[in-house]
Amino acid sequence: MVWEGAKCFLFVPLFILVTGENCHFSNNISIVEPLTEEGALSVAERIDCHPEPDVSREKCESRGCFYEIVEEEGGAPWCYYPTGYGYMMLDEPAETHDGYMVHLRRSVSLPMFGGESQDLWVQVFFQTDNRLRILITDDKPRFQVPIEIPSLGGMPSNPEYTVSFTSSPTFGIRVNRRSSGELVLDTSLPGLVFSDQFIQLPIRLPTGSNLYGWGENEQLSFSHDMNWNTFGLYGRDQPPSGATNMYGVHPRLTILDKNGDTAGLLFLNSAAQEISLTPMPGAIYRTIGGLLDVYIFLGPSPESVVQQYTGAIGRTPIPPYWSLGFHLCRYGYDSLENMQAARDRMVMYKIPQDAQWGDIDIMERQLDFTIDAERFGGLAEYVRVIKEEGVRFVTILDPCISIGEPNCTYKPYDLGEQFGVWINKPNGEPLIGRVWPNDPVYFPDYTNLRTHEWWQILIKEFHDLIDFDGLWIDMNEPANFVAGDLNEGCAATATNYPPYLPHVRIDDAKNGLADKTICGDAVHATGDHYDLHNMFGWFQSKPTLNGVREATGKRGLVLSRSTFVGSGRWVAHWLGDNFSNWSNLRASVIGMLQFNQFGIPFVGADICGFIDDTTPELCSRWQQLGAFYPFSRNHNGLGNIEQDPGFFGEEIALITRDALNIRYNLLPYLYTLFYSHYTQGSTVARALWHEFPQDNLTRTIDDQFMWGSQLLISPVLTQGATSRNIYLPPGSRWFSASNFLDWTSWKEVDSGWVEVDAPLDVLPLHVRGGYAIPLQVPAVNTALSRSNPFQLVFALDNNGRNGEARGELFFDDGDTIDTVESGEYLLTSFMYNKDDEIEYIVHNDGWSGANLLFIEQILVVGCPDGVSSITVNGDLHSDYINTDGQLIISNLKLQLNQPWIIQLE
I need a labelling partner for 92 at 20 to 30 A (CA). Which of 141, 394, 650, 782 fits? Predict the structure, then answer.
């Protein structure tokens, strides 16, 4: 069967080929052969027919599969599918207004887990030129994730993909890249299974490709090891522990093929699920609920894949400017005096800080919406004091509500009863758990709009008690200190104990999926917890942000532990309850890069670690790295030694201050990166291969990262190291900025692998040629730094007579909601062009505050010596230094919202 053209169909036996070209019923027929012939499966191509433990020949053959012990291939399945196992095409594909529909029938009779669907419907939607959707389901009602991803509503005009269907030996879908012909994915492998509680889709990936993504797990390499590794997803109150499932669920992968072209895959499913990786290379997707809903983003560049993905699922609004500063928190201040002491050490050492946080110990017995009158009785007044100093306050809320307050009125419970906001058991009674405040609790049903109203009322009233600027929602997987219901556990049903359990962490097998959470048959307003568990934090995030904005009248910040596809529209994320060790320090870089690909760029790890005691050296290196997390917070756990930047004394305090001063110097650039994310979908922090996908050496580098296209950060991640090996991709000029604030120290360096000195007080930074960066003189908080002079840095490439460089600046008041939509912002661009001119262009002048801000210094690096004169808007300017490939122009006083030109002679 073959067809060509997005607007016509032609049926010929064997295969169907769809391209984006308009076709004619003449000689446009191509035959697409299957990539795997019957009986030709290699060990690397085997698809596991018994993915659960305790395989045996008898169990394997009862499913109609082959059994062969393979000792030499560690991890290769002993039980695997024959080539014809799956579904066959029953009728020729039918054209729809935006794609095609195919009817399938099961080609095998022996069951896997029972409830197999005999007939399936496959719909292929050509959504945009760079986005394709494949939906596979049966005729049963099935849960579908309530995220709407709009399409063009018709056939795209010039798609970057071709799609073919195979009918023998088993049905499959093959997607190729139209421009190169390279495979993107192929499902014509044995093992397509579609049943009530087990769905499986094997996928062949392009030869020579690298695979990234899938989370939330602690992954020790960004590029996946394809040798039979499995990662399960099911939201869980779980510190980092290798492949173990953690807080969030992002079934999202990125494929980097051998040519450097990139594609993204999203499996839009909210049930417990997993991915198994094989050296074919291949990926076997499994889930125990919902349906198969796969989105393919064709890029072709890594950044364009993320842009297309975030364009589909939603993007992070521009954060409040203050939230890009440094945050300080600990669980275990235990008193207002201890919180004040940590803050006082910040002031004593002049360490920048923009937000002080409170954890659950500020509450009365960990009860939401309360303040402990004995230990934190003066907190509201203290918050007023630090806010006058320019420091904001953020505090925590847990999702569950105590029902154990019989001798007093507790409004969150009383109003919740009145509104009927609880998750119920199947009998209609509220499910009872135990979690903070370590009492019996009810679980609010955040899928219910009444719950949103209840939650927002409580947030606004809490703001009357304490003047917070943001909220932190924790434990929202949802966590539970018991399994299921406190009194009854969970009923012995297939919903609570499914026939197949993905590779997710279970501490006690008798608990099933309810281990550390609630029962799958718990009832929400929009369905069973079985389908909604992984979206609990997702549903809580929007009303929390709405509540913060209603209470403060400003953008606000919400930080969430549990996230799902699209959570970035409302929340930032931290990487959870990490450990104070070097391994977690290194893994945090990978977590940060992953969440930028997941569409949650405002992310960071607890600096210095949350669990266990840190050390001065570890904390110093972590503060240096954490100064370049998009979200930068030092957070410590109960019972550990203090670790605020001033605790270890002057040496560590000054190392932290230096790193944060660089961050604060760069805040206009970081803010502009968030503007680019919001308007274009770009990442903020990105891997080297995002910028250099054709450079094979970048594919596995995950201990260096970039802010945008301009700045390369190479943190020291090894105990005792005083130097490190870094990679500077050839083809770009690179300038060393190991002492970033001292412009005279910036030097051009050779590209390639370079050993750099990195004593304890040094974080290696490099600026890329061809780009310009906006800076602002730092201060101890953004309330002060936002009034300081601006600076521009131009790092020249090799284009033109002396080189070129370009940059952009976005700026507004930093707190007003939707300034982009209202036009209340400043947007400028600036360039050093081939005529040795520095030009500054104003594209939008909608923020009145820009009248009071000035650019006072410019640095050009990579330029030749010998500048004889400088004119600014035609007037001679004599305050400049030009030596050693640097040009520093001072005392400019150029208004931030006015265009200008500087001419060099």
Answer: 141
Which among 372, 477, 606, 797 is annotated as catalytic? 477
Residue 646 phi/psi, 5-degree rounding, is -90, -10
pLDDT in tens, 724-776: 999 999 999 999 987 899 999 999 999 999 999 999 999 999 999 999 999 99
- Options 474, 691, 797, 808, the catalytic residue: 474
Structure tokens at 500: 């197949």
Binned at pLDDT 50, 70 and 90, residue 73 comes out as low
Q: Is 347 exposed, middle or buried (0-12, 13-18, 19+ CB in 10 A)?
A: middle
Q: Is residue 34 part of a domain?
A: yes
The C-alpha atoms of residue 524 and residue 423 are separated, in whole angstroms, by 5
35-44 pLDDT, tens digit per residue, is 665 556 899 9
Structural domain total, the chain: 3
Q: How far apart are CA 188 and CA 201, in angstroms?
A: 10
**Cβ proximity of 109 and 95 under 8 Å:** no
pLDDT (mean) for 573-577 = 98
Query: How many Cβ atoms are within 10 Å of 639's Cβ, its own excluded?
Result: 10
**CATH code (residue 880):** 2.60.40.1180
| Mean pLDDT across 394-398 | 98
For residue 21, what are the domain limits?
A: 15-313
Q: Are 837 and 902 in contact (CB under 8 A)?
A: yes
Q: Are 303 and 686 in contact (CB under 8 A)?
A: yes
8 Å CB contact between 823 and 804: no
Which amino acid appears at position 316 of this protein?
Answer: T
Peptide bond between residue 437 and the one before it cis (omega within 30 degrees of 0): yes
Model confidence pLDDT, tens digit, residues 621-641: 999 999 999 999 999 999 999
Q: Is 477 a catalytic residue?
A: yes
Chain position carrying tokens 């959570």 = 567
CATH value at residue 214: 2.60.40.1760
CA distances for 414 relative to 427, 428, 466, angstroms: 21, 18, 21
Count of other CB atoms within 10 angstroms of residue 402: 21
CA 810, CA 897: separation in Å to the nearest integer? Answer: 11
State the sign of the Cα–Cα–Cα–Cα dihedral 615, 621, 624, 627.
negative
Residue 160 is a catalytic residue: no
- Residue 487's Cβ-count burial label (10 Å; 0-12, 13-18, 19+) is exposed
Same domain, 808 and 700: no
Contact 395, 472 (CB under 8 A): yes
